[in-house]
Specification:
Bound molecules: magnesium ion
Largest sheet: 6 strands, parallel
Distance between the termini: 7 Å
Number of helices: 9
Strand content: 15-25%
CATH class of the largest domain: Alpha Beta
Number of domains: 2
Helix content: 25-40%
Strand order of the largest sheet: 5-4-1-13-14-15
Number of strands: 15
CATH superfamily of the largest domain: HAD superfamily/HAD-like
CATH architecture of the largest domain: 3-Layer(aba) Sandwich
Order of helices and strands: EEEHEHEHEHEEHEEEHEHEHEHE
CATH topology of the largest domain: Rossmann fold
Structural class: alpha/beta
Radius of gyration: 18 Å
Amino acid sequence: MLLKLVLFDLDGTIYLSGKLLPGVQELLQKISRSGLNCAFMTNNSSVNPDDYLKKLNNLGLNAEPKNIITSCEATCLMLSDLNLGPKIFVLGTGRFKKYLAEKGYHHEEKTPSAVLVGFDLELTYQSFTQATRLINSGVPLVASHPDAVCPTVDGPLPDAGMLLAAIKAGTGVTPQAIAGKPNRWIIEVVKKHFNVKAGEIVMVGDRLQTDMRMARRFKMKSVLVLSGVTKSSDVKKSRVKSDLVVDSVSELTNKYWFGKLGWL
Ligand SMILES: [Mg+2]
């Protein structure tokens, strides 16, 4: 295969609790010297792509807007594909609502064409009640990403998947579509930013059910890192497989460099 793009998950792969993991800079420099592209992909929809760009630049990583792939942009592609909008009831943060509004999708309480579940750090009983009412009245349900929890140093935070589970428990309704990993809309964002086919991409990430599952589904190469949520005991139990398992990305710089794996 001829590898063109290295796609990195962020949390648990590139950084942990906002701190860059060891060896990240060296690996990114080697990737850039080798003429490969790289991009950073996250399912987190609580902040927008510009916030991620600033965050990565503040961590000392050279990133441009095209290097940032988030479920925010994937959500817009999904809404457009499904002909939903422009009025959407958003269970999400003000940042997410602002991003969506800039793309033409405005938060609407009363007569939306869909209920969109994101990573809602600003959830209130009132907003959850309104979402429930809308879903019960037949308004289609969609989500930015499926992750049940978001890992932090203080333990996991309830994420979009947990809200979806609560919605299912109370209404019996499951989402019609989910934009982020492991689904196709976030891959379409990658294809929009880079002229690549799925077979020319390697996905490096810490989650079996999103990162590795997406790589398998779209026939991308895959590297699972054990620096995040997945432990080596989980790897043996899981039906989702990856091409390579490493302790952290630093092992990709020399020991498991893509050239040595025959991927260049
Ligand atoms: Mg991760």
